[in-house]
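Ligand-bound model needed. protoporphyrin IX containing FE.
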Amino acid sequence: AAQDAAAGERVFAQCKACHQVGPNARNAVGPVLNGLFRRKTGMVEGFQYSAANKGADITWTEETFTEYIRNPREKIPGTKMVFAGVKDEQKIKDLIAYLHSFDEA
Ligand code: HEM
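Prediction:
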């Protein structure tokens, strides 16, 4: 199926414990996820990343994000993001569509 941002918002419910998006988003347990697909790992101003995430040197594209969110600790060993990941491919696609709605936020 196509990417569905509204469905992605429902998937994002499990990220919201730690991440904010939108114009008033602030760093929380995890960094703000606005503009994710135009930056490299560890670039959010004011967020205390682990050395692993900070130094991962990955550019966030749909492809690298998909690999990461499937299994965060495999893509970035030593990440302090305590989250098992999202295994369902459609849910990952929808999540990407939702995150793209904050490209300019
Ligand atoms: C880091 C996405 C769930 C806590 C990140 C990064 C992404 C991300 C893309 C890297 C950001 C960067 O390099 O700037 C997501 C998504 C989630 C999710 C899409 C839901 C599907 C969670 C949850 C928690 C969490 C539930 C808390 C229990 C963190 C933390 C970091 C992080 C602490 C920084 C890791 C480090 O510095 O090692 N997340 N996350 N995330 N996330 Fe998440």
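Residues 14-15, 17-19, 29-31, 33, 36, 41-44, 49-50, 52-53, 69, 79-83, 86, 95 surround protoporphyrin IX containing FE (CB under 6 Å).
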